[in-house]
Amino acid sequence: QEVLGEDKLMAILKERELKIYWGTATTGKPHVAYFVPMSKIADFLKAGCEVTILFADLHAYLDNMKAPWELLELRTRYYENVIKAMLESIGVPLEKLKFVRGTDYQLSKEYTLDVYRLSSVVTQHDAKKAGAEVVKQVEHPLLSGLLYPGLQALDEEYLKVDAQFGGVDQRKIFTFAEKYLPSLGYAKRVHLMNPMVPGLTGSKMSSSEEDSKIDLLDRKEDVKKKLKKAFCEPGNVENNGVLSFIKHVLFPLKSEFVVLREEKWGGNKTYTAYEALEKDFAEQVVHPGDLKNSVEVALNKLLDPIREKFNSPELKQLTNAAYPNPSKAKPVEKGTKNSEPENVVPSRLDIRVGKVISVEKHPDADSLYVEKIDVGEPEPRTVVSGLVQFVPKEQLQDRLVVLLCNLKPQKMRGVESQGMVLCASSVGEPRQVEPLDPPAGCCAGERVYVEGYEGGEPDDELKPKKKVFEKLQADFRVSEDCVAQWKQRNFLTKLGRVSCKSLKGGSIS
To answer: Across the beta sheet with 50-56, what order do the strands follow?
Structure first.
């Protein structure tokens, strides 16, 4: 998508083959968007480049401890195995690649001294700015996050490469490296960037946002479930994660895409240019359901060899050890006393941004609304809420709300409710109620999570007898600056904090 230092690149190619590296911090499980850099690595090898792949284990720890120290070795081994499986699945010969771990050289005396030298010339402002798109942004950032860009810059020198390749989200780190490496007497490198694949919810596909991504080891039924929930509005080509995945992953790998349809809807159609597919979708010649089904088939063909490799007992054990499930308790044997209590954490809640499509009074209850709410699924959900006395109908229509989506559906005066609109409530009388507000610009279906609990798969359905929501909801509060919180940790989306208009110190239900 972009090259920094194109003149230098052309000068090197006139003399010899390019030496280039691609690095990945060993944090959350790699997802299908990793096929974008994998396909470019294949192109580099075909062009005769010397390619190094860096498993940046130390970076994973520095990035707000996304990889805890005790799991660092396990996660690095997982990344090595899964990245190699990806490359093999698209026909890349591994013997032509060089694989390196960051801690192989980043703990050396020479490297450490250069970290100190760099920290003596880099400003706090520049370090923070460089990591803004890559390092996790929190309210009280750790010093480790400021070190991250400097280490990535030094990697270019210590790996002895001409160029670094990464996503466009790395651009600020690349310009940081160009500015500061010469201050240590090291040469500027060339930087090449690929586009970022939007997630299924419309924003960047992220390892830490479960609903935005499809993991490389997701089962076929999980792929179907996530694609079903993906944002793919008829005719809408903006922030469409499904179309973007076809453009940036499937087309580069296969050079074509087949839309699978029944004969009565025109039969299968093969596209050899993405622009033609986008045009047909915009004109509603291609239906979202057919598009999702076709992506599901194509994606499973890519993932099957990876799933097969990781079906071995050794790699299954590695996966479970590297990524222990934080949201599910260990199974309890019947009759066992003093069993370990169930792990009740916010990541078990399936909370999403919703858009209210319609609002009507309940036919049999004056205090209830019946709303149709889009949460990024093929059909809007029907939700019954007791907001008639608190929120005028016109204030609900077309607004964004925060919806709890995995409660067990239940009938409310004859109408089945498929979710709960989360609202802030005042403590005293008269009671006031305000629906929670997602940040401006959010898309329907985007995940809402609690700070520090971004990982973990939500329960498919919360069992009423377990009272998981009730236990968590007891610690829901509105802060003094009107931010929704659980145990003083903010409710967030990728775009920022969830809030209410005015009910400071209120409860949330």
So the answer is: 2-4, 190-194, 163-167, 19-25, 50-56, 97-101
